């Protein structure tokens, strides 16, 4: 037994002085042969290591070593971090020993050394004693690197965090104060404030270390960026302290403030800057420091509010801003309109509507418009009429008023039955900028020629024999035509000449009809009337019943000449009216035939007229029969004259009209067209009966362009 112990002891001794336990988080360490008695003459150092960042904690669970004074014979020695943590022997209760009990041994690093030493014997008073040795457990416990104080002079395995230390199990890490950047060594911090960005709607910004002195050699840039439409306000706090110079402005250190890239202030000294309204959503603060100084720096509180636009103000009293708000902020808008009769103008441009929106920079996206009074412009001129202002002359703006009138007595305004000329002619410049009549709107009135109202009518009571020279204005409708020789006609309206078809297409006239059509108006003298000029013809309309090749049939002997230009009516040029009933053909009714035809075998140089009665149809038929004539005397014709009187219309008067004064309306009416006869100044004359053709005439005249 003893020997075997020796053997074992020798075995252990030969194994050498120290063993390394592989890194583990926990484990046990025992004396050799434990729990059997340990050998003599033994020495071994066990190196306990745990991973980096941990400490070793060791506790003895069993401890039974030969006790001795000062643990001189057998002992366990513990050391860590090059420090001796104790030397132990004996057991609990032994008077000589120094047992560790439940003491916890802790390393500061990740290594602990346990040396077990025995001497040559274990005996007490000559009796060999047996000691079981020891059993110890160790475990890795976290090293709180941050708790460790870097005051010990001894070389420390870890560099220390310059600013902030954060412990975790198995390690630690460092961080830096705001405005500083952790360097690549993981421990040191350096001021880094070249691109600080703030995007919260409010916050605080301060110089590094505030309110302790800021570091030297700074090039700081603090950018605040908030949403569009917000405006930033800056308020500096106390203390405010930046190195300054009494004479030179901020030569050493300075804080510059930019809003939207524009410098809005440079500050230093100890005077706190005023509150700043940047009117911007982008503010940059630049802070430069030189290599020296110990000022405490600055701190500011920034806040935001929604940007506001200036209150819209009308530029004139006619502009209306709808639903005016007490204030306008980003994205608000307003609508401007004008009072009735006024026009929105943006510069010289007319606007149909106007809306302005408050932009993110606090400005309106377009300038306030103006309201200009609506201008209706010069009123349209009225053919054969005119207008006069009933408001200020020449002013054509909103609410101006004019009165149209026709040139009386030759023209008369066309009105509806219930309307007066003054109502029809009254136009006002409306709020829409258009001249308008109360009933008819924009359409201007029409001035229609007045028919059958000669200014100087022929004296009817006189008894005329053999024809008589007409006075100017007796027959103002009288036209003088020159087509296939002289002819006559009558003015209808102001651009139509009523005549006989045969003046254009004479009977027994075979040659192609390329005759020129000359028309003269407005005088009783041939010489004078020709001086007044020819009226060019736009269109010739022959009645479809007319037969040029039937020499004894003047059926449909009626034609209309449309003048190229309407004529200006006057005392010597007026139209005649058309008949509207059969009473105009009563027997004996006196009518007038005027013309430039042949009288007394001479070509007349003046307009002459005769006064003739409408004749009885039977009398004319009998007269024709007596002459053995086969001429057609149809219901579309009538005859007039008195064979007992030597007066009649004659060649050259053809196309002129048989004019009758209607006593009821005091108008002169053309009841017939001088059509045919037998010789001149003899017997009866035959006339196209106009009453039968009124519809055709009106239809033709309506076709005018
Ligand atoms: Ca011993
Ligand atoms: Ca740790
Ligand atoms: Ca300085």
UniProtKB/TrEMBL annotation:
The UniProt record lists the keyword Translocase: no
Positions of Ca(2+) 2 binding: 142, 145, 167-168, 171
Assembly information from the UniProt record: Core component of the complement C1 complex, a calcium-dependent complex composed of 1 molecule of the C1Q subcomplex, 2 molecules of C1R and 2 molecules of C1S. The C1Q subcomplex is composed 18 subunits: 3 chains of C1QA, C1QB, and C1QC trimerize to form 6 collagen-like triple helices connected to six globular ligand-recognition modules. Within the C1 complex, C1R is a dimer of identical chains, each of which is activated by cleavage into two chains, heavy and light, connected by disulfide bonds.
CUB domain segment(s): 15-141, 193-305
Entry-annotated residues carrying (3R)-3-hydroxyasparagine: 167
GO BP: complement activation, classical pathway; innate immune response; zymogen activation
Keyword Phosphoprotein in record: yes
Designated gene of the protein: C1R
Localization in the cell: Cell surface; Secreted
Catalytic activity reported: Selective cleavage of Lys(or Arg)-|-Ile bond in complement subcomponent C1s to form the active form of C1s (EC 3.4.21.42)
Amino acids binding Ca(2+) 3: 253, 290, 292
Maturation and modification: The iron and 2-oxoglutarate dependent 3-hydroxylation of aspartate and asparagine is (R) stereospecific within EGF domains.
Keywords: Autocatalytic cleavage, Calcium, Complement pathway, Disulfide bond, EGF-like domain, Glycoprotein, Hydrolase, Hydroxylation, Immunity, Innate immunity, Metal-binding, Phosphoprotein, Protease, Repeat, Secreted, Serine protease, Signal, Sushi
Disulfide bonds: 71-89, 146-165, 161-174, 176-189, 193-220, 250-268, 309-358, 338-371, 376-429, 406-447, 451-577, 620-639, 650-680
Organism: Trichechus manatus latirostris
Annotated PANTHER family: COMPLEMENT C1R SUBCOMPONENT, COMPLEMENT COMPONENT 1, S SUBCOMPONENT-RELATED
Name recorded for this polypeptide: Complement C1r subcomponent
Domain Peptidase S1 residue range list: 464-702
Active-site residues per Swiss-Prot or TrEMBL entry: 502 (charge relay system), 557 (charge relay system), 654 (charge relay system)
Domain Sushi: start-end pairs: 307-373, 374-449
InterPro entries found in the cross-reference section: CUB_dom (IPR000859), EGF (IPR000742), EGF-like_Ca-bd_dom (IPR001881), EGF_Ca-bd_CS (IPR018097), Pept_S1A_C1r/C1S/mannan-bd (IPR024175), Peptidase_S1_PA (IPR009003), Peptidase_S1_PA_chymotrypsin (IPR043504), Peptidase_S1A (IPR001314)
EC number: 3.4.21.41
């Amino acid at each position: 037994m003893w020997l075997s112990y020796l053997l074992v002891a020798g075995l252990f001794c030969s194994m050498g002085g120290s063993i390394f336990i592989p890194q583990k988080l926990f484990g046990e360490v025992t004396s050799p042969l434990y729990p059997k008695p340990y050998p003599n003459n033994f020495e071994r150092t066990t190196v306990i290591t745990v991973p980096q960042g941990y400490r070793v904690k060791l506790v003895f669970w069993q401890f039974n070593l030969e006790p001795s004074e000062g643990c001189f014979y057998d002992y366990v020695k513990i050391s860590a971090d090059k420090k001796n943590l104790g030397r132990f022997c004996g057991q609990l209760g032994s008077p000589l020993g120094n047992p560790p009990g439940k003491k916890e041994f802790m390393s500061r690093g990740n290594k602990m050394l346990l040396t077990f030493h025995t001497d040559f014997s274990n005996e007490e008073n000559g009796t060999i004693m047996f000691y079981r040795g020891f059993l110890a457990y160790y475990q890795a416990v976290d090293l709180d690197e941050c708790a460790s104080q870097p005051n010990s002079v001894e070389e420390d395995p870890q560099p220390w965090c310059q600013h902030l230390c954060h412990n975790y199990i198995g390690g630690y890490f460092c961080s830096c104060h705001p405005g500083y950047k952790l360097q690549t060594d993981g421990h040191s911090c350096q001021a880094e404030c070249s691109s600080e960005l703030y995007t919260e709607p409010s916050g605080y910004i301060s110089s590094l270390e505030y309110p302790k002195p800021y570091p030297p050699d700074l090039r700081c840039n603090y950018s605040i960026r908030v949403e569009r439409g917000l405006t930033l306000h800056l308020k500096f706090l106390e203390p405010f302290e930046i190195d300054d110079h009494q004479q030179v402005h901020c030569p050493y250190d300075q804080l510059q403030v930019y809003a939207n890239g524009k410098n809005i202030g440079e500050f230093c000294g100890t005077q706190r800057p005023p509150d700043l309204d940047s009117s911007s959503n982008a503010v940059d603060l630049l802070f430069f420091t030189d290599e020296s100084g110990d000022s405490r720096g600055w701190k500011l509180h920034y806040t935001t509010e929604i940007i506001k636009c200036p209150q819209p103000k009308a530029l004139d009293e006619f502009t209306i801003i709808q639903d005016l708000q007490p204030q306008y902020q980003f994205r608000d808008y307003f609508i401007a309109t004008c009072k009735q009769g006024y026009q929105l103008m943006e510069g010289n441009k007319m606007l149909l509507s106007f809306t302005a929106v408050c932009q993110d920079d606090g400005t309106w996206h377009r300038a306030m418009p103006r309201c200009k009074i609506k201008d209706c412009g010069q009123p349209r001129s009225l053919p054969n009429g005119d207008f006069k202002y009933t408001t200020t002359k020449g002013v054509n703006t909103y609410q101006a008023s004019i009165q149209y009138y026709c040139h009386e007595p030759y023209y008369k305004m066309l009105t509806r039955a219930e309307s007066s000329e003054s109502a029809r002619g009254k136009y006002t410049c409306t709020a829409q900028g258009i001249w308008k009549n109360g009933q008819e709107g924009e359409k201007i009135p029409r001035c229609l020629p007045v028919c059958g109202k000669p200014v100087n009518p022929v004296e009817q009571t006189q008894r005329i024999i053999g024809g008589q020279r007409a006075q100017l204005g007796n027959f103002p409708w009288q036209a003088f035509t020159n087509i296939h020789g002289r002819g006559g006609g009558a003015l209808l309206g102001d651009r139509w000449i009523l005549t006989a078809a045969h003046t254009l297409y004479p009977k027994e006239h075979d040659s192609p009809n390329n005759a020129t059509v000359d028309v003269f108006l407005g005088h009783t003298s041939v010489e004078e009337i020709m001086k007044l000029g020819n009226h060019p013809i736009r269109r010739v309309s022959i009645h479809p019943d007319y037969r040029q090749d039937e020499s004894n049939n003047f059926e449909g002997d009626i034609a209309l000449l449309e003048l190229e230009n309407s004529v200006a009516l006057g005392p010597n040029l007026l139209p005649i009216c058309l008949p509207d009933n059969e009473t105009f053909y009563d027997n004996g009714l006196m009518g007038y035939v005027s013309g430039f035809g042949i009288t007394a075998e001479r070509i007349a140089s003046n307009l002459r007229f005769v006064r003739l009665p409408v004749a009885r149809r039977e009398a004319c038929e009998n007269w024709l029969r007596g002459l053995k004539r086969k001429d057609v005397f149809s219901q579309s014709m009538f005859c007039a004259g008195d064979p007992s009187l030597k007066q009649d219309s004659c060649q050259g008067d053809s196309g002129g009209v048989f004019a009758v004064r209607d006593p009821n309306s005091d108008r002169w009416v053309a009841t017939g067209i001088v059509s045919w006869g037998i010789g001149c100044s003899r017997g009866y004359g035959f006339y196209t009966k106009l009453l039968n053709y009124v519809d055709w005439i009106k239809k033709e005249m309506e076709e005018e362009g």
